[in-house]
Write a structure and sequence with these properties.
The protein is an all-alpha fold. It has 7 helices and no strands.
Length: about 130
């Protein structure tokens, strides 16, 4: 059921606001100056590809199937770019806030609960991988 809510809210956000990626990054960088500094030289195309992966991951129900990819991503982000776990939390919060704003009156408690559950699970998977690398 939460998969349906996640996908439906993404569809509504795009229908209502078009490409939400720039708004997500604007909110993300306002929340997390460290991330803004790390991504200063990353162009819109690469940012778009990065968000495509975030959108894909938030639609995944079973992160066990993404184990290899998540392990590689976390390791790569941490080692190559000095990404910290809190940066993901800021990104997910910016995404949820953007979707909420894009939905306006259509946003409801069911969407909020589905997004909280999904972002908490994904964040847990990512943070777990940071702690396993230590």
């Amino acid at each position: 059921m939460s998969d349906d809510l996640i996908i439906r809210s993404l569809e509504l956000a795009v229908a209502n606001a078009g490409d939400i990626t720039p708004a997500v990054y604007k909110k993300y960088f306002a929340r997390c100056q460290d991330s803004k500094a790390l991504m200063i030289h990353v162009d819109e195309l690469v940012r778009g590809k990065m968000m495509d992966e975030v959108y894909r991951l938030v639609m995944v129900e079973d992160y066990g199937e993404e184990d290899g990819y998540l392990n590689w991503e976390v390791d790569n982000h941490e080692m190559a770019y000095s990404v910290k776990p809190h940066m993901y939390e800021s990104l997910f919060s910016a995404l949820i806030e953007t979707i909420c704003e894009s939905l306006g009156d259509e946003w409801n408690a069911d969407y909020a609960a589905a997004w909280k559950q999904r972002s908490d699970r994904l964040r847990h998977e990512i943070v777990r991988r940071f702690s396993e690398a230590v």
